[in-house]
Fold:
Amino acid sequence: MFPREKPNSVTDIPISLEIIRKGVVMVGHDVPVLIVGGSLVGMTSAVLLGKQGIPSLVVERHQGTAIHPRAALILQRSMEILRGAGIEDVIQSRSVEQFDQDAAIMSVETLAGKEIAWHLPTLNEGVRDLSPCLRLFATQVAIEPVLAERARELGADIRFGTELVTFEDHGDGLTAVIRHRDTGKVSTVRARYMIAADGAHSTIRDRLGIGVSGHGVLSKSITIYFRADVEALLRKRNLGVIMVVNETLQGFFRIEKPYRSGFLAVHGLGDPQNPNSDIWTDLTDDRCVELVRSALGDPDIEVQIDDVMRWQATAQVADSFQSGNVFLVGDSAHSMPPYGGYGGNTGIHDAHNLAWKIKAALDGRAGAGLLATYDAERRPVARFTVEQAYGRYVTRAAPFLAVHGIEPLVSDADIDLGYRYRIETSDVGRTPEPVHGSPRESAGAPGTRAPHHVLMRDGQEISTHDLFGLNFVMLGAPEADAWATAARTAVETAEVAIDVHRIGCVDGFGDVAGGFCAAYGISSTGMVLVRPDGFVAWRAVNGDAASTEAVIGALTAALEPGVVIQPPIGSGARR
Structure:
C-alpha cells in the first residue's frame, strides 16, 4: 500500500559526460528546450513553447500522466492561459464530468456534522466580471492527458519512463544524459535551454546548488484515495473543497461525481490547537479507514481504500529561479500548502512568463537580459503567493502556528489576477511598487495583467485577452491614429511583430459596453503596449508625442531590460 519509489537523482547512475564524449554512448539529438518533468507544469511548459513554435523534449520518469487527482482547483488566470492554448473547452468538459460546477469551499467538524464556516459560497463569487474564464475544479488525472495531447500536436516529443541522469551547462547551451528506466538505454540531448519541472524535491535544483527559504516542512501529510457512498452525507450541498477540523484529524475532502469516491488529505492528528503533524508513523490500511470515517462523521460507513500517498506540506521558495541556461518552474521553484489551490496555478503562470522570453531569445530578438527577468519577475510573486497560502493554512487549519506570525491576507482575486511585475522606468530605475494589487484598479498600469474587456468581432463577443499570446499588441481607441501609424512604421524598422488594434473603429473591434479607455487608463488618443504574456509593458496616456522612436523605445525596454529609452518630454508616456 505504501511503495517507496526510487529517488529521481541526476547522479544515481555512473555515467559521466566524459564517457559520452569518448563515444561510449552514441545516441544523441538536438532540441531547443529540454523539459525535465512531465506533470502539470512541465506539460504546460511544452504546450506554451509549442504555441510559440518551439519544439521541446519532455522526459518524465513515471510511465504516464498523473494517476492521483491532485491540484483540483484551476483559477481564472490559469484558465486564461489554457484558453490561449486552445484547450479551455476540453478542460471545462473534463471538469463537468468530475465535479459539480461553481461549488462552495467550507469548513466542517465532519461532513455529516456541524458546519464551521462557508469560506466561499460559490467558487466564482464576485469574480465573474474580471476574466473571460471561470474558476473550476478539474484534477491532474483529467488535465494532464489533455496537455500531453496538445503538446504533441504542437511539436513536443514526450518520453515517459525516462529520467535525467546528469547534465552540463556549456554557456551557449547544455548537454544532458537521459535514460529509459525499463530498457536502460542511455542517450545524450543537446539543448539550448532546460526547464526543471521535477518537483519539490528537485534534483536539478540541488545539483545547481540553489537553496530554498521559507517556513520549511509543516507536516508529514497523507492523501487517502477512497471509495464510499457519501451522497446522503452531502445533503444536496454543492461542495468543492470540504475542510475538516475535529479532535481526531485536520485536513480536507474533495468528492467526485457520482459521490462514491474522493480523497481525504490529512495534515494533523488530535487536538487542533496542538496537533501531531507526523501522519506517516504507524500508518496502516485500518488506520486510514478510521480517519476517513472520522472525517465523514459516520463510524459505520463502508470504506474501501484505493491508495495512499505520502507528502510533505511545505512553504518555501528557491533562492533563484535561474542558473545559466536552466530555469526552475512549478514546485521545483516554490512549494506551498494546498490552501487556496495556488501551487499548480503559480507553476502554470511561471511557464507562461518564460515561454515567450525563450522564444524571443531563440529568435535573436532578445538576450540574457530578458531571460533574467524570469527570476526578477516570478520569484517575488512566488514568495508573496507562498506567504498567502501559508497564512490560509494557519488561519483555517493550523492556528497553533499563528504565534510565529503571518502576513496580512489579501483576496484570492488579488493573488490570482492582481500580481504585478516591477519594470524599468526612465527616471528612478526599478519601480518599488507592491507585488500585488486589486485587478479592478490596475487600469492598464505597466507591469500589471492587461484588464479583461469585452469586445465584438464579427458579431461574436471576445475578450481583450483573446488578442494576446504570440506577438506584442498595441491597443488604443479610435482617435489613436498617430500611435497606430507609428506602431506600423516601427514594425518595419525594428523587425518585431506588433499587432495594432484600435478599439471601437468601424473596421476594428467593437467596444460592447464602452469604457475601454477607462479600463486601460488612457485617453481617446492614447495606447498601451501589451507583451505576449498579456502583461502591460508600456502605456502612453495620450498621443501628444506619438512617434516611431517612442514605440521602438518601448519595445527596446521590453526586450532588452536595462536599456531605458527616455520618452519625449510631455509625451504622457509611462513605462
